Amino acid sequence: MRYLFFSGKGGVGKTSLASATAVRLADSGLRTLLVTTDPASNLADVFEQAIGPQPVPIASVPKLDGQEIDAEDAARIYREKALGPLRGLLPDDMLRTMDEQMSGPCTVEIAGFDEFVASMFHEEYDVIVFDTAPTGHTLRLLELPSAWSVHIEESAQGSGQTCIGPVDQLQTSKEEYDRAMTLLRDGASTHFVFVAQPERTSVAETLRASGELKELGILNQRLIVNGVIPEDAAEHPFFASRREMQLRQIAEIAASFPAGTMQVPLLDGEVKGVAMLRTLGRWVDLDAYAIC
Q1: pLDDT tens readout for residues 102-124
Q2: Which of 66, 163, 181, 218 is packed most tightly, with the most Cβ within 10 A?
Q3: CATH classification at residue 69
Q4: What is the domain count for the chain?
Q5: Residue range 4-27, pLDDT digits in tens
Q6: Residue 126 sits in which domain range?
Q7: What's the pLDDT score for residue 64?
Q8: Judging by beta carbons within 10 Å of its beta carbon (0-12, 13-18, 19+), is residue 101 exposed, middle or buried?
Q9: Which residues, in sequence order, are CB contacts of 14 under 8 Å at separation 6+?
């Protein structure tokens, strides 16, 4: 199985490019799953159809499914699964206390990460494309396996309890977290794709995030520069000046991505619907990912 992770500063076109890439992969004959981990995802708007927490077929794109991970909903389901069998057996005040203990940010964070890890192991797909949340949230997500593994080990030596249950019930989770990180660090199966606008703030954030990923051992990184003013549209002095600025930013950032940089031109329409995604997908070089 192959994995593509798309990340970047909010508003750079990350969801559009992840979606366009997933459509191209499916059109090429590969069974593809597009997963979003962004709490504010607009994936359903992009495809103009309902997409939920379980994989659903994308209309008009055979071999493509979509999935929206909802950490809050996952935490709610987990709490109900844990507390439901106890209703009627334990006092209400004790159940309320347990519910409060399992309603903190730790539970939501881990429940969301559990869903993320589970989505990596859908064996019926050839490739899984992740549309991740803006950069800071994504880095936190990818740091969780190490942090959570340490938490499990420390809890095992102490109270034996974590924010989502006893340690002995979570050892399998720890093994899956470790397995997930192994896959993320495997350059043969995983590509991490940064999407950036050719502007100083976007470039700076991308370079910073790239360095943090390298510290996590995720080295197979690529770059898509989105929204480049086409040369034939730069006849007006204003657009010519903007294009020159963009090219300087592209030269600066491309040097940090020796594995490859793609450029996607500024389009004149909103990227919405499968037809527009296929238009955008013409600029996606699948050969760069050695998948097709």
Answers
A1: 777 667 777 777 888 889 888 99
A2: 66
A3: 3.40.50.300
A4: 1
A5: 999 888 889 999 999 999 999 999
A6: 2-289
A7: 98
A8: middle
A9: 6, 7, 8, 131, 132, 195
